[in-house]
Amino acid sequence: MTTESAQYVAPDQNDPAVRKAQEDRLREVWKPPSGWFFRWTDVNNNRIGVWYTLTAFGFMLFAGVLALIMRTQLAVPNNDLVTANTFNQLFTLHGSMMMFLFAVPMFEAVSIILLPQLLGARDLPFPRLSGFGYWSFLIGGVFVSGSIFFDAAPDGGWFMYPPLTTRTDLSGLGADIWMLGLSFIEVSSVAAAVELIVGVLKCRPPGMRLNLMPLYAWYILVVAVMILFAFPPLIAGDVLFEMERLLNWPFFNAEKGGDPLLWQHLFWIFGHPEVYIVFLPSIALFAMLIPTFAQRHLLGYPWIVLAAVGTAFLSFGLWVHHMFTTGLPKISLAFFAAASEAVAIPTGVQIFVFIATLWAGNVKKSTPLLYATGSLAVFVIGGLTGVMVAVAPFDWQAHDTYFIVAHLHYVLIGGTLLPLFAGLYYYWPLVTGKKLSDRMGRTAFWIMFVGMNLTFFPMHLSGLLGMPRRVFTYPEELGIGGLNLASTAGSYMFAAGVLIVCIDLALSPRRPKAPRNPWNAGTLEWLALPDDEDWGIRSVPLIESRYPIWDQKNFVQKVDEGRFFLPDAEEMRRESIITTVLDARPLQVIRLGTPSVKPMMTAVALAGVFILTTYHLYLLSALSGVATLACVLWWLWTGTAEIPEKPTKHIGHGIEVPLYTSGPSAPGWWAMFITMMADATAFSGLVFGYFFFWTIHNDFPPSGVGLNGPGVFWPMVALALTLAGWAATVGAREVHRRGNVGAGRALLVVGIAATLSSLFAGLAGPWYSGLAPELHVYPAIVWTLAIWTAVHAAIGVIMQAYTLARSLAGKMTPVYDADLRNITVYHHFLALTGIVTFCTIGLFPGLA
């Protein structure tokens, strides 16, 4: 024990004055900034989560209004309420908003609120990153959804199939708004995924081993990992899509060697896991509320964890069932049909576990449980029709009909929307301290349940009778006017149920405070008091059970009295505990981000890059890019890797942990690794495109002027320089860690020179070969891979220079070296990117 440790005297938690002083310090540290504007700069995850949730809910209501307009148009044959072009904008924006602006952001928003409390943490590890994600989502969402008011909304469907959408003469500005606006929103989704993964893995309370985690945390971990592998292929497709629209590079133009099917592959590699990305968090809500209302532990904990993982794994092998009608080989159809049917097995396991838990427990009837059971019934119907369309011959008949619309909405409403209402009624007392009305909630449920079935069940029949989807009207002779009128009536009925919920929410502030833990739940989030403080949990507990409130003696009292860990804010800083990944042993006290305008400013600057590019204002877009870089560097320089005033801190019970760690123990290292996994997945989408084109062409690369490959020399020079920059960075980390600061700085200078040289060498091959990317897809994809690698090399140079500057400024030492360790992770991935890129474009055609 250190001298400082030997002098440490634990505060007497039996003394009320001691406890009050601790609470006063916590209250002072965590209070929000004063002033209406500066409150928006706070990065407390609970407040960010509430803003996030309300914003996503608002976008859902707006998308619902668009759906009502569409249903009104389709109520009777030959209706002329809206034009065909307006209808196309309505259904494109409705689908895009429900998927990108409601379903995924809503799960992330709810998780940002619940996870810290479920894990007994003061906050998630990167609250400023959550703030950046929220502002990116808000700005991007307003940009995309507001386009409808200017007759500039996208009109190519939420899937935006080329070539109709990539040809600027056939699609207007809406396609760019969709592509660039939603690409910006995808940045916020990946940012939230990084925050959630690191939060689950590193911010659990002491003792909460992986097998003791609340099931909600397991589900969120699985879903966040899915985002890392599902969203990046779409980002890669977005890059190709916009380069074709803006630069006329023919990735999807069959006349110049492209293929529109590549977009379908990249889109549906994202699109089908997306269904489970929005479904599994809803199942996670069931996993929390069903044990509460059964008043017993959930049965089959290991099985439901394996089922969640299995569902996620299988979901990435299903995307081609959206492409059964595109003429794929029969062996492909058989494989993906089998995988599509197999995913019903882990899904069924989860549903039967919930039923068994209710069967074995002492069920307490409640409004949240009513929504949960009703949503399961709706989802099962959607799952059964999903098995039907997984059979290729049936799909050939039903694929472009309203049968698919009915299936999709049964799955999404039963698997996402109704479960969210169940979670809303369950967790509203936790968020606001007020319960919602049981009478209004049950009335709303039955109206929505009947309205939903009246809306979408007739669509199965109208689809089988021949009504195609994505049409703005239909002839009376088709004989489906009655079915469509019923669907329209049902949609208004469903909207009335949603309106009742909105009224219930609006009336809730007038209601009295609910008692603490009104449902008698057993998990950590219900430690919150009705008048909860901004600092959340009073002391970080020691966990010995999955349901500690039920199982651990005097647990709530001990938490409230500060008898566990970190009961104080002695240094007047926002703090939480970092633990080991597997067994949750305390590793570090982390200093959390405080209220700041930097995340907001960074999001605004980055928004300028995407929005200004949409309107072809490239100079202003470049200036916004420079501003974004400046904001990021300012944010990092002043807000990360801070050298603490003392090396260690007592957290209670005689345990002393560091205030600073680096490498795999630190959350920053994990954040870099996870971010680079997402980046590598996006890059793999581009590499997939290269080999996809190779498989569909007999002559790849083709012969002709402007089509010859970049040769071997320049790619190999670029590869050698990339590896030299990587080796110099790794060497700098090692010699710096041993205390040789001067040698570390010298190696960083060498790394900067080598990495910068690799940037120019990587572009020299396509340049000196005269590759003309507008002539054929081969030079276009070669240039794309080279530019992708060059951009990453430029980012690597900035990281190396930033770390060198930190060292020269005395902000990095051999002990406090998180910056250098983190950029080394980046350069590992940069080296891998260089190997794949330069071997592919320099060697592969010759090997072929």
From TrEMBL:
It is found in: Cell membrane. The chain crosses the membrane at residues 49-70, 90-119, 131-150, 177-201, 213-235, 275-294, 301-321, 333-357, 369-392, 404-428, 444-465, 485-507, 595-612, 618-637, 669-693, 713-732, 744-768, 780-804, 825-847. SUPFAM superfamilies: Cytochrome c oxidase subunit I-like, Cytochrome c oxidase subunit III-like. It is a multi-pass membrane protein. Keywords: Cell membrane, Copper, Electron transport, Heme, Iron, Membrane, Metal-binding, Respiratory chain, Translocase, Transmembrane, Transmembrane helix, Transport. It comes from the Bacteria. InterPro entries: Cyt_c_oxase-like_su1_dom, Cyt_c_oxase-like_su1_sf, Cyt_C_Oxase_1, Cyt_c_Oxase_su1_BS, Cyt_c_oxidase-like_su3, Cyt_c_oxidase_su1_bac, Cyt_c_oxidase_su3-like_sf, Cyt_c_oxidase_su3_a-hlx. Residues 586-846 form the Heme-copper oxidase subunit III family profile domain. Its EC number is 7.1.1.9. NCBIfam families: CtaD_CoxA. This is cytochrome-c oxidase. It comes from Sphingomonas albertensis.
